[in-house]
Structures are given as C-alpha cells and as structure tokens.
Write a structure and sequence with these properties.
Helices cover 74% and strands 0% of the residues. The chain has helices at 8-11, 16-31, 45-60, 63-71, 75-99, 101-170, 174-182, 188-209, 215-243, 252-260, 262-271, 273-303, 351-354, 361-366, 373-398, 403-429, 435-454, 461-487, 503-519, 525-546, 552-573, 579-620, 630-658, 662-687, 704-713. It is flat, with a radius of gyration of 65 Å. Residues 96-268 form the Vps52 coiled-coil domain.
C-alpha cells in the first residue's frame, strides 16, 4: 500500500518504476494467500498463452512491425531507440510546460475567478428562484380573489337587473298619469301609454301571485288608471258603433278606424271582460240590424227592375205555340223560344261581370232598364260576398277570434240576413219555371263559393250549400217537366206539317247548347243524366213527327233538317266532342246517306239496281246469269247518256229547295254526285267483265273522267 502511494517524481526516474513495481508485486504475491478461483482463475498457463498468441497476432498486423520484420531490424536496438525518442519527447514536453507556466498560471487564475463569479451567479439564481416561488403563490392568491370578486359582481348585476325591472314596472311615471287622464284616446301617445299601463297591470298581477309587498304600493293608482282608461275606451268604441246607425253611413270607414285601435278591445278583454262583452254585444246587435235592413231594402228594390215577362208553368218545351188559354189566364210570352235561349245571358258568368259592380236599382229605374233574374241574383249575392268577407276579416282581427268562434260570431251578425235570403229564394223558386235562370244561378253560386275558398273565408260555406240545396231540385223539376211535356206531345195537334226544322227541336237545341256550354266549367253528373233523358225524348219526338209525312223522302228531309239545325246550334256553344254533338252527327250522317240513295233512285234507279245485282253475282262467280240482259244494258247505257245532265240539274234544284241550310244542301248534293260517280264507275267495271266485253253498246259509255269534269260544273256554290 505504501509503494502504491509513492511520489510521482520517484516513479518517473528511469528504472525506479520498474524496480518498485517488481518489488511490490513480489511482496504482494508473497503476502497474498493462495485462492482457488476455479473457472474464474485468469492466471492459468492456458489463458496466458492464448492471450499472448492474440497479442502477437495483433502486433504482427501493425505496419511498423511489418516494416521492421521486412527490413530485418534488431528489435532490441529498435526498442532502445524508441525509448530514447520517448525520453526526448518527454523532455521537450516538460520544457514546453515550463515555457508556458505563466500562461497556465494565468489560466488557473482566470478559472478561479470564473468559479467565484459562477458561485455568485448561483447565489443570485437561487435567490431569484425563491422570489419566483413567492410571486407564484401571490398570483394564485390574486386569482382566487379575482374569481371571488367576479362572482360577487355577477350576483350583484343579476340582483340589480331584477330589482331595476321590478322598480321600473312598479313605478308609475307622471307622464302616464297625465296622458291617461287628459289625452284623447285617438292620440298616438295615449295608445303608447295604454300599452305601458297594460304591461304594469300584468306585472302587478304576476307579483301579487308571488306575494310581493311592493305591489301593494302601486295597486291603487294602477286600478284607478285602469278604470279611467276603460271608461274612455268604452265611450270611444260605443260612439263609433253608434255612428253605424246614421242613415247613408259608409260603415266601412268607422270599421277601419276601429281596426286602427284594435288594441283597445284587447285591453278591455284582458282587464274588464264585462265591458268587452258589452261592446261586442252592442256591435253584433247594431251590425245585424244594419245588414238585415240594407239587404232587405236592396233585394226588394232589385226585384222592381226584373223583366216583367217571366216563364210560367205553361211555358214548356213541348207546348205548342198555337195552344189556347182561358179567358182569365195571363198572356203568354211574346216568344216562348226565348225561354230556352241563352243569348247574352251567359255573360253573367264571365269574370268581368261576375265580379263587376253591383246594380244600383234607382239608377236602373230612372233609365227604364230591366234585367233577367240571374243578373239580379248575381248582384245581390256579390254584395253579400263582398260584405261577408270583409265582415269576417274584421271580426277575426278586431275581436281576436278564429275557427268556430269566428264562425259563431259571424253567424250571430249575418244569420238573420242569410235566413231572409234563403226564404226569399225559396219563395221565388216555388213559382219559377225559367230553367236557364235557375241553372245560371247555380253556377253563379259555384263560382262565388270558389272565390271564398280562394280567399280562405269559410263564413259563407253553409249558406252556399243551403242555396244550392234549393236551386238544384228546382232545376231538376223544371227539366223533368220539359221532358214530360215532350213525351206527351201529340204530333197531330201541332198544326200544319212542314219539312223545315220544328220549333220544339229548336227549343231543345238552344236549351241543350246553353246547359252544355255552362256545365263544361263545373261538370255535374245529374245535369248530364237529365240532358240524356231530354235528348232521347227529343229524338223520339222527331221520329214521331217524321212518321206523319206520307213519303219517305219528306220524312228524311224533315229528319235531316232537324238534325242539322240541332247540330249547328249545339256546335256554336258545346265542345265538338260532347256526347250530344256526337250523337246528332251520327244520326245526321245516317239519314243523309239514306236520303242520297232516295233521290238517286228515280233518275238512276235502274243502273243502281243493275250495279248492285251484278256486284252480288260477281262475288259469287255467277255473272253469266246476266249474259242475256243485253237489251236491258243497252237501255241503261243510252238512257244515262241522254238524260244524266237534266237529272243532275233537277236533283240539285230539288235538294236546294228542300233544305233550309244551304250549306247542308250543298253537302248533300256533293254527296249525291259523288255516289252517282261511284255507281257509274261500278257500271263501267261490270261491263268490262268478260261476260259483257263483246257488247257493242260499251262504246257508248261516257268516259269516267269526262263525267267527273261535267259533274263538277253542277256543283253549287253557296
């Protein structure tokens, strides 16, 4: 242990270190006890030899060793040389240290100074760290205090807002008192202060439920202000309602004024229901009387400008114009046909007239103007529609009602008037036989009902239904009476027979076209069914009338004239695809074709019969049966060639004399000439068959093209 602590100077002497180390190792080995380390023993010969081999192998790889071995240097000499070189370097290093001793000493001093500075810095940082820890604790304390103060502030603000609202609602300013007491109710300032008073009353009620003591301080003055406001509002509204009762008053103006101050009734309803009910009852009573009086007077004055000539129970479609009446019966209409003619009466359904201005009876009386019933009906009910819609909207807005409540309030005002309308209509219909007027009234109501639906006004829905329940049965009854009158008509009592269109069929055509044209906008199955029955009876009547003529030709002329007339009238108003138009087109076509055959038969019957007979035999392949009819064929060919022009001319003149409609007559002539050419073409075809090909008379046949050119010359132009 003592040798291990030898001074470094002694160890640095040459040879001293090695001797001492050897001595120390020997003494240590002598003193050390023998140890059995087993596998851990590193001093065995085997281990040492392995180590030596490894080191030798490593040294042999060194470049210097390789160079020494290659050049054959003496290792001992080389070892001494290396040791000498190391000593020289060591001495040089010591000299360098001695030479730089001052710098090293200066560096040592600087390091010492830096240590002292760093020591002071460490002290400062330690002090700063301790200061920071104390500041952090202070910040936490301040944060806690801030949170606490913020919470107290919020609580105070919440309390302040509630208290300020409470104080604001409880305080009754002097301005409110002076305005409620002294200002007229029509002033805007009064309305504003009334809103404020209403909010204070509601707030006071709310506080009273909470048993707030401060509420009792203002209750007395609020109640007195409420009483004063209610009194002034009641007086104002009743004054406006009483103004409705003045003669010639346009009640819409005070109604608009009341709507401007609709909050007055809302205030009364919320704070004084008895007064609100009084005002509502007074308004209902007043307006009910006004509407009833106005419409009663207007309806009676309208009836004074109605046409004096109206249809009665004897003015039916099947009644003959020559029918006589008793001595005491009233005179018949100047023209019974006008009952079944629409004419300009349908204009009442046009949008311009349907919603046009209502009639002014006294103006019409001064001008001696007269109107059909449907025009008066339109004017009366448009006035009802206009006033009813406006009244319903006013009630819903001013009295703040909706749904069934609004309907009940409306009925309490207009119910008496509507009942009067229904009663008057029922009385009029009980003696009404003008089916066109009733049907127009039905469609007026249907259109007015659509208008109220569009405006979303359900107030008059039940009334419209009640009117239709009166009109529809009456219309059906009148229509059934007309059907029965045609069914019971005796053709032999209708005067002299005439092939021209009959006045009964004209009545039907005018009436049917009127009903069909009106019914197209609002189709009704009941109407279509009744029109179908009427059409069947008219067709039967035409056939019965035609049967009175002795000849089939006159019967066909009568049928064609009547069918053509009815079809023409229907097509003026009804759609081309309507059931009535299609039915009469088929009837007219069938009778026209039969008439063409009828008028071609006298001059060309022989040829026509021969053609039909020959075509039938050709189909059976038996045309040879006519081989011996050369004389007949010769007579037919020469007879046609000699007389066809005169026959066609006579036929054309006869047709034009027989038919009242020149256009129809022209069409029949064209059809007859076309049919004639077809028959003659068939005649050519038959004679071109082998059976008749050898006949000499074939050369006398008229060229078909030439015949067509000549026939066109006889085509009438109308």
């Amino acid at each position: 242990m003592a040798e291990a602590l030898m001074p470094a100077a002694e160890l640095s002497k040459p040879g001293a270190g090695s001797a001492a180390a050897a001595e120390a190792m020997e003494s240590g080995c002598a003193a050390a006890p023998a140890l059995n380390l087993g596998d851990l023993d590193l001093t065995t010969d085997e281990f040492i030899l392995d180590e030596v081999d490894i080191h030798i192998q490593a040294n042999l790889e060194d470049d210097l060793v390789k160079e020494a071995l290659r050049t054959g240097v003496d290792l001992r000499q080389y070892s001494k040389q290396v040791e000498t070189e190391l000593q020289r370097i060591e001495q040089a290093s010591i000299k360098d240290y001695i030479k730089e001793s001052q710098n090293i000493a200066s560096l040592h001093n600087q390091i010492t100074a830096c240590d002292s500075i760093l020591e002071r810095m460490e002290g400062m940082l330690s002090s700063f760290q301790s200061d920071l820890s104390s500041i952090s604790s202070e910040i936490q304390t301040l944060q806690q205090q801030s949170v606490s103060m913020n919470l107290r502030l919020k609580n105070r603000q919440a309390v302040r807002s509630q208290l300020s609202q409470l104080v604001d609602e409880l305080v009754v300013p002097s301005t409110m008192i002076s305005v409620i007491l002294d200002s007229p109710v029509t002033e805007q300032e009064f309305l504003e202060q009334l809103h404020e008073l209403n909010s204070k009353i509601n707030y006071a009620k709310e506080l009273s439920f909470r048993e707030t003591l401060a509420c009792s301080d203002i209750q007395d003055i609020v109640d007195r202000l409420k009483i004063k406001a209610v009194s002034k509002i009641r007086e104002f509204i009743l004054q406006k309602i009483y103004s409705f009762r003045k003669p010639m008053t346009n009640y819409q103006i005070p109604q608009n004024t009341l709507l401007k101050y609709r909050f007055f009734y809302q205030f009364l309803l919320a704070n004084e229901r008895t007064v609100a009910k009084e005002i509502r009852d007074e308004y209902v009573d007043t307006m009910s009387k006004i509407y009833f009086s106005y419409f009663k007077s207007y309806s009676s004055r309208l009836l004074k400008v109605q046409y004096e000539d109206v249809a009665d129970k004897d003015d039916l479609m099947g009644v003959e114009d020559t029918a006589k009446k008793g001595f005491f019966s009233k005179p018949s209409l100047k023209s019974r046909n006008t009952i079944f003619t629409l004419g300009q009466r349908g204009a009442v359904l046009s949008p311009a007239e349907l919603e046009g201005p209502i009639l002014i009876p006294h103006t019409a009386q001064r001008g001696d103007s007269r109107y059909p019933y449907e025009t008066l009906f339109r004017s009366q009910h448009y006035a009802l529609l206009d006033n009813g819609c406006r009244e319903f909207l006013f009630l819903s807005d001013f009295f703040m009602v909706a749904g069934n409540s609004a309907l009940d309030l409306f009925n309490s005002i207009m119910g008496k008037t509507l009942s009067m309308f229904l009663k008057n209509l029922s009385t009029y219909l009980s003696d009404c036989y003008d089916s066109i007027a009733v049907f127009l009234c039905i469609h007026i109501i249907l259109r007015f009902r659509a208008i109220t639906v569009k405006r979303n006004i359900p107030a008059l829905d039940k009334y419209w239904e009640g009117v239709l329940e009166l009109l529809w049965p009456r219309f059906e009854l009148i229509l059934e009476m007309n059907i029965q009158s045609i069914r019971n008509t005796d053709p032999q009592k209708l005067g002299v027979l005439d092939t021209r269109p009959h006045y009964i069929t004209r009545r039907y055509a005018e009436f049917s076209s009127a009903v069909v044209s009106i019914n197209q906008t609002f189709p009704n199955e009941r109407t279509n069914a009744l029109l179908g029955q009427l059409q069947v009876e008219v067709e039967n009547f035409v056939l019965k009338m035609a049967a009175e003529f002795p000849s089939r030709r006159d019967q066909l002329i009568f049928l064609i004239n009547n069918y053509d007339m009815m079809l023409g009238v229907l097509m003026e108003r009804a759609a081309d695809d309507s059931k009535e138009v299609e039915g009469f087109q088929q009837l007219l076509l069938a009778r026209t074709q039969e008439f063409i055959e009828e008028i071609l038969s006298p001059p060309f019957g022989g040829m026509i019969a021969f053609v039909k007979e020959s075509e039938a035999l050709m189909e059976k392949g038996q045309l040879d049966k006519l081989r011996n009819d050369e004389a007949r064929i010769t007579q037919l060919v020469r007879g046609f060639s000699s007389s066809w022009k005169q026959s066609v001319e006579a036929l054309s003149q006869d047709v034009m004399r027989s038919f009242t409609n020149f256009k129809n007559g022209t069409s029949i002539i064209q059809g007859a000439l076309t049919q004639l050419i077809q028959y003659y073409h068939g005649f050519h075809k038959v004679l071109s068959q082998p059976t008749f090909r050898s006949l000499a008379v074939r050369s006398e046949l008229i060229n078909l093209h030439h015949l067509m050119v000549e026939v066109k010359k006889h085509k009438p132009n109308f």
